[in-house]
Design brief:
The chain is α/β, with parallel strands linked by helices. It has 16 helices and 16 strands. The strands form two sheets. Strands 7, 8, 9, 10, 11, 12, 13, 14, 15 and 16 form a ten-stranded mixed sheet that branches. A six-stranded parallel sheet has the order 3-2-1-4-5-6, sandwiched between helices. The radius of gyration is 23 Å and the shape is elongated.
């Protein structure tokens, strides 16, 4: 079966590599028919590349080739990836992608285009890179009512926090190390401010609960305000700080979805996830907690998920899979700050007696070198709005959510 690859960066070149290196295995899993690369769309000249004869700069070479049945989109971003993908789907060509930004923003429209073209749009690699999560949620956990999802969805931020926790590095030093190691971009904003994780939350929430969730509906907070003082205090409570994407089912018409730093106690499966690894914990009413763990990014791990989707499409080239979600609503994602109760970590300039007077029942934390006028503690469950109202007259240094996963 002839296929095409759009984009020849890290993931796109990895897709080509996986297809070529695993050609015999792929043929066995498609009933004897190998995947044959007919076109690679890329704007660079790629002179001297072993695949030089396959390159094209004209998208129409792929769109108008009747033999191409499956296309991998690894361009990234929304445009021109959205335009190309929509045209391919409406023409009846299956498309698979690792493009989380595109799926989060335009997934509903592209799933509708796939319906129109009686073909498939798959995106296993868009959330966990090489970690299987989309297909298990859609198939293996289909008999469950999903109660919640919590995930370490960004390897860069997890690496930074790991260095702060294990090596005592400052945030700035850990970020620089992540950049030196190639884990963080020169402009790391999308990672450290939580936007990358937010896009993945949108996809997981849309799939789990059946209505499209857009990035502007997900309250997002990054890790740039986390200090070594916070790490030390939380350690005294037998916990660690992780950047989590969290989704909570409320009822048929409401969910909560947000990204923020969170205190995770050491008994949680998420607490031991270190370095650049990711993990996604899904809580079902029948199965309980299940955790998916692995490398959430990288050339070959992500490419392996893209190629797996291509195989799935090749096996369903004349059949439409039951997959996707419906339209969302403006008030579908609630303001969690006024509705979801949880404990909070608080670090503030006040005395212990002040904290008790404000909150009545708190768990005090400690650290080496703790100043006499600084206090840190864990509160009882309350909404974030209620917490901030109680702290309105206090000099607050940091607030971190405490998760129950």
């Amino acid at each position: 079966m002839k296929i095409a690859v759009m984009g020849y960066g890290t993931v796109g070149s990895g897709v080509v590599e996986v297809i070529e290196q695993h050609s015999e295995v792929i043929a066995k899993r498609t009933g004897g028919e190998p995947l044959e690369i007919a076109h690679i769309l890329d704007l660079h000249d790629n002179i001297g590349d072993p695949h030089e004869a396959l390159f094209t700069k004209d998208f129409n070479d792929i769109l108008n080739d009747p033999e191409v049945k499956v296309v991998a989109e690894t361009i990234g971003g929304v445009n021109p990836a959205f335009d190309y993908t929509q045209k391919l789907l409406k023409a009846g060509k299956a498309v698979v992608t690792s493009n989380k930004e595109l799926v989060a923003q335009k997934g509903l429209e592209l799933l509708q285009a796939a319906d129109e073209g009686n073909t498939n749009y798959l995106f296993e690699a868009s959330v966990g890179g090489g970690i299987p999560i989309i297909r298990p949620m859609n198939q293996c956990l289909a008999a469950n009512n999903i109660e919640g999802i919590a995930g370490i969805l960004n390897g860069t931020t997890n690496f930074i926090l790991t260095m702060m926790i294990e090596q005592g590095m400052s945030f700035d030093d850990a970020l620089k190390l992540a950049q030196d190691n190639g884990y963080a971009e020169k402009d790391p904003t999308a990672d450290i401010e939580g936007f990358d994780a937010s896009r993945k939350v949108c996809i997981l929430a849309s799939l789990a609960f059946g209505k499209h969730v857009y990035p502007n509906q997900v309250e997002t907070e990054g890790i740039s305000n986390i200090t070594l003082e916070d790490v030390s205090y939380v350690s005294s409570a037998n916990g660690v700080i992780k950047l989590l994407g969290q989704i909570k089912y409320i009822n048929e018409d409401k969910i909560a979805a947000f990204v923020s730093p969170a205190v995770v106690y050491n008994g949680s499966q998420l607490a031991s996830v270190r370095d650049v690894f990711n993990a996604i914990l899904v809580r079902g009413d029948a199965v309980g907690d299940v955790c998916f763990y692995g490398r959430g990014a990288g050339k070959l791990p992500t490419a392996s998920a893209v190629v797996a989707d291509m195989l799935d499409c090749a096996k369903h080239v004349d059949r439409k899979k039951i997959f996707g979600w419906g339209a969302g609503e403006e008030d579908y994602v609630v303001d969690y700050r006024s509705t979801i109760e949880m404990p909070f970590y608080v670090r503030a300039k006040m005395s212990e007696s002040d904290a008790v007077n404000i909150f009545h029942n708190v768990k005090f934390l400690s650290r080496k070198g703790q100043p006499s006028d600084e206090v840190a503690f864990i509160t009882d469950k309350m909404t974030e709005n209620a917490l901030k109202e109680k702290l309105a007259d206090s000099e607050v240094l940091n607030i971190i959510k405490v998760t129950n996963y």
